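Q: Hi! First time doing this. I have a protein sequence and I read that you can turn it into a structure. Is that right? Here it is:
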Amino acid sequence: VTIEQNLVITAGNDVTFNAAVGGDAGTETLTVNAGNHATFGSTVDDLASLTANVTGVTRFDGNLSNIGALTTNAAGSTVISTADLGVTGATFNDAVTLEQNLVITAGNDVTFDAAVSGDAGTETLTVNAANDLAFGSTVDDLASLTANVAGVTRFDGDLSNIGSLTTDAAGSTVINTAAMGVTDATFNDAVTLEQNLVVTAGSDVEFDAAVSGDAGTETLTVNAANDATFGSTVDDLAALTANVAGVTRFDGDLSNIGTLTTNA
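A: Yes, that's right. Below is the predicted 3D structure, encoded as C-alpha cells:
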C-alpha cells in the first residue's frame, strides 16, 4: 500500500495490512481507528506520522523506518514482533509486549506510558534516543534492557526479571520507583532517586557516575549476590545500605548521607 495523502481509516472491527505500507513523499500521515485489532504484517516506511487508536491489539510484524511520530492509544495493547523501529519520536500509551529482540532508534523522545514486557523473557530491548526515554510503568521479563539516551532516562515503575540493565554515559537517569529486580545493572550516567529504592541483583551492581537523592530524604538499598561499585560521588541520601556477598567499593566521596550500612 502506498499513501499519497494523509489518510484516516475508521473500522468497526479489524484493519490488516499484510504487505508493506509506505508514504509516497514521506510527508503523509496514517491514522487507524479500529474497533478491534490493527495488524501491520510487513514493513512500514516513510510516514510523517503513524497513529493507532485501537481497542484490541496493535501488532507490528515488520520493521518501521523513517516514521515521524509513532503513537498508540491507551486502549488495547501493542505487540512488537520485529527487530527495528526507526522514528523521530514514539509514544506507546498502551501496554507493550516484545516477541523478539527490538532496537528503537529515535531522533527525539521515546515514551512507554504503560507496562513493557517480554513474551518469553528471552527478548532484549535497546532504545537509542537523541533526547529522553521514559518508562511510565513496570518493565518485566527481558533478557536485557539498554538505554543509550542523550537526555534523561526515567523509570516510574518497578523492574522485575530483567537480565542486564545498562544506561550509557551520556545524559542522566532518574528513578522514581521502589524496586528493581535484575541479574546485573550498570549505570554509566548520573543517577537521581526520587523515592526510596531497593535494587536486587543476582550478580553485580555498578554506579559509574554520581548517585544522589532528589530531596535528601530518599534511601538506597543494594542487595547484590556479587559486587557493588560506586564509581563516583554519592550524596543526599537518608540511608545507604549495601547487602553484598562480594566487594562493596567506593571510589568517590560520600556527603550528606544519613546512615551508611554494609552487611557482615
